[in-house]
Amino acid sequence: MINDNQRTTSLIVRPRRLRLSANIRRMVRETTLTPDDFIYPLFVRDGMDTVKPIASMPGQSQRTVDHLAEAVREVAALGIPAVILFGIPAHKDACGTQNYNPEGVIPRAIRAIKDAAPELVVISDMCCCEYTDHGHCGIINTPESAHYRADLPHGYLLNDATLEILARASVVHARAGADIIAPSGMVDGMVGAIRSALDGEGYTQTAIMSYAAKYASAFYGPFRDAAESPPGFGDRAQYQMQPANAREAYKEIALDVAEGADMLMVKPAMPYLDILRGLRDRYDLPTAAYQVSGEYAMMHAAAQNGWIDLKAAALESLTGIKRAGADMILTYFAKDAARWLLDE
Ligand code: PBG
Q1: What is the CATH number of the domain that holds 141?
Q2: Would you say the CB of residue 223 lies under 6 angstroms from ligand 1?
Q3: Number of structural domains the chain divides into
Q4: By CB count within 10 A, which of 175, 235, 294, 333 is most buried?
């Protein structure tokens, strides 16, 4: 038996000394959030004079281009450096051709944002799922398709045909003024195809933020309402990564680095903090994490039930994501968190 006196003398190291007061805790704090860390996602829909709340994502809305100026001025005033755009076009088709319409919803949105808040960095999410009538992230193999391949299964996402759409749309978004193109479809070779298309048209300064390790996640549920892009059949397991794999993430990341990605992203964030840490330790490129719609919606739902404190939980989650290695966090909490941090 150890008596209290012996215990006292044998305990030389007492970590609690550094937790005694708020100021001591401030001194030893290792990770600090700032609005610089955040990227705010915006959903832009075709049409006029509409701000349509997204039921599954409290506080978030789809808005038409004429309502963007007010939204982005608010983001910029909060000290948030960047937004990422998702488009909801009025017309969808099998190949997602509205994605490369120069008068489509995203090119018009980019120009409106650059008018209203010229310093704000504009990131364009580059995927076909919001633009295809079947909701998949590219061209699907069907006998009716001009790209039909009899040797590949029906329903297969045709990789190389999709690259052409992504490359073409990236140039259109860059021409409209996008600073960064963020391919999110997990299509093989997407970074290389977009880089060479941009360079070929003289957009050598347009950066690429690759959704390098994007998992086929259940946590995207609310987003598919928000972007009105649920897959009409099947799921995305054929192109997004399976949640069980880590080594495969580093293979995907290595390919994107080799193809010329300027920034790398892991998505979702909280269930994949190990991948984020592994990426941070292995590569020197700036690293982003996407705290996705399901992560956001869960915290709101729990807070509405009185089960968690929203502000504390949101800031803890964002701090954890930064501690795990994120230089940037795409989060629907960006504006709230910036306000909470400015208040402190
Ligand atoms: C696809 C895309 C998705 C998200 C961002 N880009 C959805 C998907 O892959 O199904 C999800 C974002 C979120 O859940 O917040 N272009």
Answers
A1: 3.20.20.70
A2: yes
A3: 1
A4: 333
